[in-house]
Design brief:
Layout (H helix, E strand, L loop, with lengths): L2 H17 L1 H16 L1
Helix pairs in contact: 1-2
Amino acid sequence: MDITGTIFAYKHLLLLKQRNSIFFKKIVIEQKTFLSF
């Protein structure tokens, strides 16, 4: 993926984070738990 696409995806994720902060936090916690194993 090129840099422009990466930046666009990152900004899109930030918008989703602001809209669905609880859902986003849940995913982050699950990922941290998964990575800790």
